[in-house]
C-alpha cells in the first residue's frame, strides 16, 4: 500500500501542496458546528443558529463552481488568494458581530460572504495532482489519498471546534477564529507554491477542447449531470445521518456520544480510501460508482434497526468504508470527462452537490425526527441512499456513451 502513495508523493512539490491543502481544508469541517454552537449560545435559538449555518452552506455551494471557473481561466493564486482573505474577513466579522449581539440579518450576510468566497480547496488540490501525474492509476491513487485526507478533517475538525467553543476559558467564537487561522495559513501556504500550480486557460468560454471546438459549461456533459445527481442524493443521506445520529444518541441518554458515532463513520471511510487507492481496479468507473452507492444504501438501511450506540457505531464503520471509494470514482469520472481547461470547475460541482444535499437531507430528516424520532430520521437516510442508487442506475447508459478518455471505461 505504502509504495503507491510514496510514488506519487515523490513528485516534486507534491507532498508540500497536499499537506498545505489538508490544512486549508480544515475550516470546511469546523465552520458549521462552530456556527451552531456560537449563535445558539449568543442568541439562545437553534432556529437562528440553523439559519446562519444554512446561509453559509448555500453560499459555499453556489460560490464554489463560480470561483472554480475563474480559477480555470486566470489561475489558482490570482483568484483564490483574495477570495481566501475575503472569506476570512467574513469569519472575523461573524465572530465580532456575534459577540456584539448584532441583528441576525448581519450574521446571515457575513455568513454568506464567508461561504461564497471559501471556494473548494479539495478541487484545487486535485487539479494540481492531475497536472503533475503521468498515468490514470497514479491519478486514482492521488484522488484516494485526498479522499482519505478529507476524512481526517471531518474526524478531527468538528471535535476541535467543539472543544474550542465550549472551553470555559475561551470565547464561544473560538471555533470560528481557529478556522480563520487555518484558512489563511493553509491557503496562503498552498497558493504560494507556484511551481505546481496548473496553467491558466484564458477567459471562461474562450478556451478550446483538444479537438479544437470551443466548449461551454461543464453542465453540458451528461456524465457530469449524472455524477451531480448521485452526489446530491448521497449528500442528503449524509445530512440525514448527521441529524439522526444526534437524535439517537440523545434518546439513548448519551448526547455527547453523537460525535463519536459520526467519527466512526469517518474512520471507516478513511481506512477504505487508503486501501482503495493502493491498487488498480479492472472494472469500469461507472460500475464502481454504482457498487459504491449500493453498498451505502444497504448499509444505511440497517441503521434504523440498531438497538444501541455500540451496534450503531459498528454499522457506521462498516458502511463508511463505501464513502471514500464512491467519492473517488465520482471525481475520476469528472476528471476523464471534462476538458482540462475546465477541470477545477468540474471537480467543484462534486462538493457543491454534496453540500446542497447535506442541507436538504438535514432539513428533511429534522422535520421527520420531530414527529417520529431518530428511527424516522434513519428511514429518511435510507430513502435518500436508495434514490442515489436509482440515479446511478438511470445514468449508466449516459456514462457508457459519454465523451471520455480511456479511464471511464476501465483502468
UniProtKB/TrEMBL annotation:
Pfam families: MFS_1. SUPFAM superfamilies: MFS general substrate transporter. The chain crosses the membrane at residues 48-67, 79-98, 104-125, 223-249, 255-277, 289-306, 312-334, 346-366, 378-399. Residues 223-411 form the Major facilitator superfamily (MFS) profile domain. It comes from the Bacteria. Keywords: Membrane, Transmembrane, Transmembrane helix. InterPro entries: MFS, MFS_dom, MFS_trans_sf. PROSITE patterns: MFS. It is found in: Cell membrane. It is a multi-pass membrane protein. Its main location: membrane. PANTHER family: MAJOR FACILITATOR SUPERFAMILY (MFS) PROFILE DOMAIN-CONTAINING PROTEIN, PTHR23542. This is MFS transporter. It comes from Actinomyces lilanjuaniae.
Amino acid at each position: 500500500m505504502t509504495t503507491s502513495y510514496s510514488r506519487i508523493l515523490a513528485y516534486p512539490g507534491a507532498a508540500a501542496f497536499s499537506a498545505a491543502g489538508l490544512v486549508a481544508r480544515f475550516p470546511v469541517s469546523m465552520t458549521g458546528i462552530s456556527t451552531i454552537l456560537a449563535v445558539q449560545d449568543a442568541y439562545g435559538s437553534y432556529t437562528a443558529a440553523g439559519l446562519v449555518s444554512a446561509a453559509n452552506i448555500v453560499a459555499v455551494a453556489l460560490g464554489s463552481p463560480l470561483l472554480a471557473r475563474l480559477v480555470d481561466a486566470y489561475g489558482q493564486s490570482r483568484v483564490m488568494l483574495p477570495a481566501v482573505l475575503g472569506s476570512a474577513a467574513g469569519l472575523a466579522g461573524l465572530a465580532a458581530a456575534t459577540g456584539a449581539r448584532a441583528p441576525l440579518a448581519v450574521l446571515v450576510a457575513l455568513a454568506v460572504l464567508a461561504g461564497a468566497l471559501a471556494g473548494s480547496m479539495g478541487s484545487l488540490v486535485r487539479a494540481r495532482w492531475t497536472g503533475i501525474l503521468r498515468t490514470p492509476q497514479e491519478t486514482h491513487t492521488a484522488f484516494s489519498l485526498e479522499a482519505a485526507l478529507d476524512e481526517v478533517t471531518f474526524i478531527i475538525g468538528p471535535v476541535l471546534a467543539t472543544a474550542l467553543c465550549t472551553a470555559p476559558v475561551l470565547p464561544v467564537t473560538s471555533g470560528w477564529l481557529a478556522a480563520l487561522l487555518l484558512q489563511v495559513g493553509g491557503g496562503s501556504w498552498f497558493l504560494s507554491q507556484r511551481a505546481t500550480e496548473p496553467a491558466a486557460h484564458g477567459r471562461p468560454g474562450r478556451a478550446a477542447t483538444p479537438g479544437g471546438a470551443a466548449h461551454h459549461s461543464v453542465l453540458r456533459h451528461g456524465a457530469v449531470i449524472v455524477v451531480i445527481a448521485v452526489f446530491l442524493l448521497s449528500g442528503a443521506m449524509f445530512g440525514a445521518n448527521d441529524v439522526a445520529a444526534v437524535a439517537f444518541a440523545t434518546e439513548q441518554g448519551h448526547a455527547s456520544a453523537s460525535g463519536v458515532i459520526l467519527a466512526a463513520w469517518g474512520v471507516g471511510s478513511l481506512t477504505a480510501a487508503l486501501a482503495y487507492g493502493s491498487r488498480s481496479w479492472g472494472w469500469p468507473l461507472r460500475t464502481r460508482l454504482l457498487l459504491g452507492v449500493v453498498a451505502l444504501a444497504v448499509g444505511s438501511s440497517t441503521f434504523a434497526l440498531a438497538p444501541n450506540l455500540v451496534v450503531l457505531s459498528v454499522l457506521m464503520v462498516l458502511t463508511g468504508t463505501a464513502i471514500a471509494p464512491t467519492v473517488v470514482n465520482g471525481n475520476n469520472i469528472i476528471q476523464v470527462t471534462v476538458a482540462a481547461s475546465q477541470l477545477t470547475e468540474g471537480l467543484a460541482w462534486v462538493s457543491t452537490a454534496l453540500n446542497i444535499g447535506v442541507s436538504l437531507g438535514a432539513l428533511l430528516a429534522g422535520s421527520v425526527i420531530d414527529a417520529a424520532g431518530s428511527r424516522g430520521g434513519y428511514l429518511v437516510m435510507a430513502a435518500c441512499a436508495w434514490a442515489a442508487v436509482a440515479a446511478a442506475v438511470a445514468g449508466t447508459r449516459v456514462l457508457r456513451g459519454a465523451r471520455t478518455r480511456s479511464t471511464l471505461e476501465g483502468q
